[in-house]
Amino acid sequence: MRRLALFLFALCLALPAVAERKQTFGDLDVHYNAFNSSFLQPDIAAAVGLTRSKTQGVINVAVLKAGKASTAQVSGQVKNLLGQVTSLQFKQVSEGEAIYYLAQFPFSDREMLNFTLNVQRGDEAPHSFSFDQEFFPDE
Fold it and tell me: At 68, is the secondary structure helix, strand, or coil?
Protein backbone atom coordinates (compact mmCIF):
# COMPACT_ATOMS: atom_id res chain seq x y z
CA MET A 1 0.00 0.00 0.00
CA ARG A 2 2.96 2.33 0.66
CA ARG A 3 4.02 1.82 -2.98
CA LEU A 4 0.54 2.84 -4.06
CA ALA A 5 0.66 6.07 -2.09
CA LEU A 6 4.10 6.92 -3.45
CA PHE A 7 3.02 6.07 -7.00
CA LEU A 8 -0.15 8.19 -6.81
CA PHE A 9 1.75 11.07 -5.21
CA ALA A 10 4.34 10.86 -7.99
CA LEU A 11 1.55 10.96 -10.57
CA CYS A 12 0.15 14.09 -8.94
CA LEU A 13 3.55 15.72 -9.36
CA ALA A 14 4.45 14.33 -12.77
CA LEU A 15 1.25 14.38 -14.87
CA PRO A 16 1.34 16.69 -16.65
CA ALA A 17 4.87 17.89 -16.04
CA VAL A 18 4.37 21.25 -17.71
CA ALA A 19 1.29 22.47 -15.84
CA GLU A 20 0.43 21.93 -12.22
CA ARG A 21 -3.03 20.41 -11.80
CA LYS A 22 -4.27 22.29 -8.76
CA GLN A 23 -7.19 24.46 -7.75
CA THR A 24 -6.91 26.70 -4.69
CA PHE A 25 -9.86 27.87 -2.59
CA GLY A 26 -8.46 29.96 0.27
CA ASP A 27 -6.27 27.61 2.35
CA LEU A 28 -7.72 24.54 0.60
CA ASP A 29 -5.68 23.08 -2.27
CA VAL A 30 -7.16 20.41 -4.53
CA HIS A 31 -4.56 18.50 -6.55
CA TYR A 32 -5.90 16.29 -9.34
CA ASN A 33 -4.88 14.28 -12.36
CA ALA A 34 -6.52 11.86 -14.77
CA PHE A 35 -4.79 9.06 -16.65
CA ASN A 36 -5.34 5.78 -18.44
CA SER A 37 -5.79 2.89 -15.97
CA SER A 38 -3.37 0.73 -17.96
CA PHE A 39 -0.57 2.95 -16.56
CA LEU A 40 -1.11 1.28 -13.16
CA GLN A 41 0.82 -1.83 -12.23
CA PRO A 42 -1.53 -4.84 -11.82
CA ASP A 43 -0.80 -5.28 -8.09
CA ILE A 44 -1.38 -1.59 -7.37
CA ALA A 45 -4.68 -1.54 -9.30
CA ALA A 46 -5.85 -4.67 -7.48
CA ALA A 47 -4.90 -3.23 -4.08
CA VAL A 48 -7.36 -0.34 -4.49
CA GLY A 49 -10.00 -2.19 -6.51
CA LEU A 50 -9.37 -0.50 -9.87
CA THR A 51 -9.78 -2.18 -13.24
CA ARG A 52 -6.89 -1.96 -15.68
CA SER A 53 -8.14 -1.47 -19.23
CA LYS A 54 -7.13 0.38 -22.38
CA THR A 55 -10.50 2.16 -22.30
CA GLN A 56 -10.81 2.93 -18.57
CA GLY A 57 -9.43 6.10 -17.04
CA VAL A 58 -8.68 6.99 -13.44
CA ILE A 59 -8.99 10.35 -11.75
CA ASN A 60 -6.94 10.95 -8.62
CA VAL A 61 -7.81 13.83 -6.24
CA ALA A 62 -5.91 14.91 -3.12
CA VAL A 63 -7.28 17.61 -0.81
CA LEU A 64 -4.92 19.64 1.37
CA LYS A 65 -6.04 22.08 4.06
CA ALA A 66 -3.24 24.46 5.07
CA GLY A 67 -0.74 22.06 3.48
CA LYS A 68 -1.91 18.90 5.29
CA ALA A 69 -3.92 16.00 3.83
CA SER A 70 -7.60 16.39 4.57
CA THR A 71 -10.74 14.35 4.24
CA ALA A 72 -13.50 15.71 2.03
CA GLN A 73 -16.57 14.75 0.09
CA VAL A 74 -15.48 14.45 -3.55
CA SER A 75 -17.96 13.96 -6.37
CA GLY A 76 -18.18 14.81 -10.02
CA GLN A 77 -18.91 13.81 -13.54
CA VAL A 78 -17.18 13.38 -16.86
CA LYS A 79 -18.78 14.34 -20.17
CA ASN A 80 -17.69 13.53 -23.72
CA LEU A 81 -18.18 15.74 -26.78
CA LEU A 82 -21.48 13.97 -27.59
CA GLY A 83 -22.84 15.15 -24.24
CA GLN A 84 -22.84 11.68 -22.66
CA VAL A 85 -22.36 12.06 -18.91
CA THR A 86 -20.86 9.54 -16.48
CA SER A 87 -21.04 10.14 -12.74
CA LEU A 88 -17.77 9.66 -10.92
CA GLN A 89 -17.92 7.39 -7.86
CA PHE A 90 -14.92 8.28 -5.70
CA LYS A 91 -13.41 5.97 -3.12
CA GLN A 92 -11.10 7.18 -0.38
CA VAL A 93 -7.64 5.64 -0.08
CA SER A 94 -5.62 6.38 3.06
CA GLU A 95 -1.98 5.47 3.54
CA GLY A 96 -0.32 6.95 6.59
CA GLU A 97 -0.93 10.69 6.42
CA ALA A 98 -1.77 10.61 2.70
CA ILE A 99 -5.44 10.66 1.63
CA TYR A 100 -6.51 10.22 -2.01
CA TYR A 101 -9.83 9.96 -3.77
CA LEU A 102 -9.98 7.69 -6.83
CA ALA A 103 -12.68 7.15 -9.44
CA GLN A 104 -12.79 5.30 -12.76
CA PHE A 105 -14.53 6.28 -15.96
CA PRO A 106 -14.89 4.76 -19.42
CA PHE A 107 -13.75 6.29 -22.69
CA SER A 108 -13.60 5.00 -26.25
CA ASP A 109 -11.26 5.77 -29.08
CA ARG A 110 -9.57 9.16 -28.92
CA GLU A 111 -11.76 11.47 -26.85
CA MET A 112 -11.70 14.93 -25.35
CA LEU A 113 -13.40 14.71 -21.96
CA ASN A 114 -14.72 17.45 -19.69
CA PHE A 115 -14.51 16.81 -15.95
CA THR A 116 -16.50 18.69 -13.33
CA LEU A 117 -15.41 18.08 -9.75
CA ASN A 118 -17.06 19.08 -6.48
CA VAL A 119 -15.12 19.14 -3.22
CA GLN A 120 -16.56 19.85 0.21
CA ARG A 121 -14.91 19.68 3.64
CA GLY A 122 -17.31 19.13 6.53
CA ASP A 123 -19.81 21.96 6.75
CA GLU A 124 -17.75 24.35 4.63
CA ALA A 125 -19.18 25.67 1.38
CA PRO A 126 -18.65 23.29 -1.57
CA HIS A 127 -16.13 24.16 -4.28
CA SER A 128 -16.52 23.21 -7.94
CA PHE A 129 -14.23 23.39 -10.95
CA SER A 130 -13.93 21.90 -14.42
CA PHE A 131 -11.12 20.88 -16.73
CA ASP A 132 -10.71 19.20 -20.13
CA GLN A 133 -8.34 16.41 -21.00
CA GLU A 134 -7.82 14.27 -24.08
CA PHE A 135 -7.59 10.49 -23.71
CA PHE A 136 -6.22 7.82 -26.04
CA PRO A 137 -6.85 4.09 -25.72
CA ASP A 138 -3.68 2.25 -24.82
CA GLU A 139 -2.55 0.08 -27.72
Answer: strand
d(CA 61, CA 71): 11
Tell me phi and psi for residue 76, to 5 degrees. Answer: 165, -175
pLDDT tens digits along 46-71: 999 999 999 999 999 999 999 999 99
CA separation for the pair 132, 115 (Å, rounded): 6
Task: Answer whether the bond into residue 106 is a cis peptide, omega within 30°.
Answer: no
Residue 45, C-beta contacts closer than 8 angstroms, at least 6 positions apart: 37, 51, 52
- Please tell me the number of Cα atoms within 13 Å of 72 on its side-chain side: 31
Q: Name the DSSP class of 39.
A: G
Whole-prediction pTM value? 0.84
Q: Is the pLDDT of residue 116 over 60?
A: yes
Kind of pairing between the strands at 91-95 and 85-88: unpaired
